[in-house]
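Please, structure for the following, as tokens.
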Amino acid sequence: MAALREPYVSYPLAGKNGERLIRVLKILTKANERRLRCSLKVIDLNKAPVYDCLSYTWSEPLYHELSAGYPLDIRTTTGDLDHEIECDGKMIPITENLEDALLQFSETGFVSNSVEGRQENREGLIWIDAICINQKDEAEKDVQIAMMDEVYTKARRVIAWLGRCDEHVHPALEIIKRIKSIPPEQRQVTITDFECPEYRSLFGNPPISSQQWNDYAAFIQRAWFNRVWIIQEAFLANHIDVLCGPHVLSWKDDLWDVAKFLRDSKLGTSLAVQVDGTAHPDRKSTTYINNSLNNQYQLEAMKEDAAKKPLSLERLLVYGRYFQAGQAQDYVYGLLGIWKSSNKTKKLPPDMSIDQSLKKESDFVARVFTKYSWVSIRNTKDLNILSLVDDPSTRAQQHLHSWVPDYSVGFHVHPLAGVPRPDPEKQRWNASKGLPPFEVPTSNSEKLSVRGILFDVINDTATTYSGVIDQHDINSLLLLLRYPGEKYPTGCTPVEALWRTLIKDTFCEKPAGDQARDTFQYLIAGHVGDLEDASQGFDENANTEEMSTLLEKTESTIGQLGNKYKNDTAIPDMEAIHGIIQKVGSLNPASDEKKKLDRDFDDITESFRVAYSCRRLFRTKQNYLGIAAESLEKGDAVWVLSGAAVPLVLRLAKDGGWKLVGEAYVHGVMNGEVVKLVGKELQKIDLV
């Protein structure tokens, strides 16, 4: 397209009598006309105009990691303004993805299509941020961005543009169609993997191939689904139509319906594991998957929450971490419009106002994250925000204080205090119960002054989740049971304390009981079996000689534990382990006994994964067992702070303050026991 000579000049949006002015676009291009022509019009939101909003990504819209030929043979677009649109005879630069969307609209006249229950958009007016906001005027941008929640709320509908078609689209649409055809009475099912009977019953005739599932995953992981700004755009929308090339989908009836089924049936978890293995076949270590396949579910869950009560800033900051943003501050700024809408206010309170004057500072993002962490603490009147701090090794932003969560990084663990925070009657832990009340800080500071009890010091640590899964080092976990006595400080056996700690005393999302204890032996047997296979060369990534040595050590440890804790079968002896392995191999796959055994194994394995991923087992000087961030070290201290629902691992800093390493599950001190053990006298310390 030949460049137009004169650039478009936007006149100021200056209302003199309280008008809420925005620009909207009218597409003038007709079908099959490749030159994009349009006109801009100024309208007043106060007069209830009829217009649509476009929600899209500036840069590459497609997900390519599951595409053939990736990355060498894949054409990608950028967020550069290297395309042009003619506007009232002048030129406005736009991105390629926006050009694709406008060409699609011009071919079909889609913007003027009817929307059930809404006024007709006869003029075909559409609001598009890149065109309707003067991108060269910072003052205008600040004003218009602050109005975006109102722009989306008052629009007739939001059009979500996913981008052009690729080879994944048609197979993905077929899967959506197939899942939608499953009758409601057949949807109440748990699917543990792609081989289980429940899966084969639903999808076995004709079967859905792994490639077809990957096609669906590639479609649903397009950039639009992962943008943090779409949380606001989708949340505030009165109606959403989703477009991918010429295909039109319903947000509620197509995407949400399928996402809910995948979530409820647990099939989405298996799909995420498969997709990660396909996209990263050379990855040698197990990682926690921040499942972006769930993002449609997250959006609707947020809407349901908001219908019950106003959304807190803390909850929004949690939701934002499942998405992505081009600028780190948008993990906060992109959510403030939702907060305003949910809390039914037209203006942010002074302590939540956006201060763009700090943009030039090198620690701008850190200041933004710190400021809104303070706001959240004052709103919630507790220290639950500290449970959102991931392992220090996962943080992406520089200059952050240890107690400030890095909102720009997806969760690597399932926070113990809850994500999002559960209702009070469903809260499992209250470690600070009985302590003097939390004193809410009244002013912002780089340091967070807290009061609490230094409960114990870490004396020994075990391997990580990756060490157990990838290096088969189950022995490292069992070694922590070499106690000087046969009783845990709370009176139970160390074996019971161990299995409860390794699953944070939670089984199938409920407090662990006899079923968890009985199935824990399957977890041990499964990992010992994997170690035996690795020692025989069945794991191509493992050194057989090293695995054989580790197997000998593990067998010796299990033998010693069996002699010491004869009456506790949660950790079976080697004879029982081989009996379990033999039983698994001999049972008829279709038998009820085999189905129950597989289900029990899947349940205890998932409980362990959720609890232990990106964490590490530790033992304190007083022989308490706990799990906390992988970065913990011998000598770190376990604190119970007033206002914190769970214990925290802190490390003494050079300046006398304390650095937060992460939250912890410590068996025996999760619900106020620290008061009886230590007392109520608190120390005042600073988190830095």
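The CA atoms of residues 26 and 675 lie 67 Å apart. The mean pLDDT is 90.
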